[in-house]
User: Fold these one by one.
Assistant:
Number 1:
Amino acid sequence: MTAVPLAGRRVLVTRATYQAGNLSEGLRALGAEPVEVPVIEIQPPQDFAPLDRALTELANPLATYGWLILTSANTVHALADRATALGLNLSAISQLNVAAVGESTATAARGEGLRITLVPETYIAESLASSLAGQVAGRRVLLARAAVARDVIPDALRAAGATVDVVDAYRNVMPESAPALLREAMQKGIDAAAFTSSSTVTHLADAARHAGITFPFAGVAAISIGPITSATLRELGWEPAVEATQSDVSGLIQAVIHALAPR
């Protein structure tokens, strides 16, 4: 393999602007040109009241929650920001077990002073639910997540005997600029599109519709971060060229290499 295996390749990066750096830098170091078209923008939930009630109870020394489940770094930042607005200190919560869906989520949580109890071996919701199933019977669990997320985790934990409260910590919306940026990117041509979540898939499809661009993109390799993202791609008629074997940014970059690098 050459020192820059992705030389001359243009790869669409669909992450939110503030999250795109690691992926874009990793691709650039391999010779690729990352084409950033953020199709995700993080906004507050429609109603803060359920989140505020949950955070206030978490901070109560007599709280009955046994577990807090964090599904993304975005969730962590949303919780921390809202806790600060409420004058609460997440790092002071010592009696709580905290599960994070992956290592990047765990790192973000530790940065906010939370003690992580569990990170599953595979960074997907199904693996997290399976890892927790034997530990939550009879316990009360708080699941903080994006609005309109899948119900895999709460359904599995309720089946395992837990009482699960679900609160929206934030919303994923499509930025207004996405269709125009996508139109410009497609006019110049791209070789692959890298997807970090199901939301990036569905939002890119929405941006394409607004831009008048046929989706899926003909002749463009779809690179998926993991099986759930791949399933969403297939639902929309786009067979992934490669699925990352490790569901994180470094695994996604390796998948891009596998798809585009000369053999």
Number 2:
Amino acid sequence: MSNILKSTKLDIALVKPYFKTICFTLLLPIVFAAINRSLLTGVSFAMCFIAMTTGYTFSITEKNSMDRLFGILPVRKSELVIGRYVFVLAMGLLSLIISLIAQPLVLKVLGETVGVFDIVTAAIAGVFLFALYTVFQIPGYYKYGSIKGRVFM
């Protein structure tokens, strides 16, 4: 279990320079929700955007030839894969929480009514879309690499 967490921390360290870009991708759906005046649309857009950023770790590792580093680490390949999934799920969960807090606030400021049913519906749709995107993306990245695997994005 500790190797999985260490693998997740390694992925966080890899993506750390792109943190501002990822935060910016969370601001765009807030604007999109304000324009469309729909929480469901905004959360769906946010989960789609954050699912696209999951490829950062794959492109960084391929760009820097980190496969050799992973080969000498005392970690099994399965632990690296599970750690990558944990990282992606954490990113998805964090973006869902941020979206479900910020977007209803913006919509309330604009005079829209956002009920509990709207929040629950948007959360379920967001989780479903994120799972749908990542279920195809991550295995595609592992099988074909980050450049060819973008087809699954």
Number 3:
Amino acid sequence: MSETERIRDNYLALLERVRRCGGQSIKVVAVTKTFPASVIRAVHAAGCSAIGENYAQELLAKIDDYRATQVPGDFLPEVHFVGRLQSNKIRQIADVVTVWQSVDRDSVLHEVALRSPGAHIFIQVNASNEIDKGGCPPDQVERLLGLATQRGLTVKGLMAVGPSDGDTRRTAEVFAEVARLGRQFGLEELSMGMTNDLEIAIDAGSTLIRVGSAIFGDRPPIA
């Protein structure tokens, strides 16, 4: 079985998994972190309209590789940046990122507004209160929303990562809290859920999941 066929089958199996938990309208962002550029074309051919990347330099290298083998009629899917953002990297990737999913502090918000005027963003919330995770505290969401509006950015919704320990009850509580914040501020989209907790996220109201290993397999080790 070719790489393209394997990824297609895995992607279709993921869609069936999502459908079984009532998520027919869920958007899938295929997270290609550590995988080669070839998987972008494969998952796009399977019907996935968006990819996600975590690191600026890896994203740039991958896009260069993708474009080097581009043929007429072939186009890049939406690119969602889903990793922790460094202000000094935003300028480098502004022309390839479609959606900034991990905006969590003033400096990042201002730099995105400067380098990508009118950009679509998600505000990342650290509802699990883990010090090693990105995301703003829940009580800072309203302030960041106001800043984003002032700077002309389009806030699509909120983004969250489940607790690192994978505890089912805590994961459900975290996603429920982020969903509550989304409703409070009238935000339509929630980016919650990955391979291991997508069912919990969808049950809480997620509209977008970020999935890598369920589509591409085990991640290659980072060099």
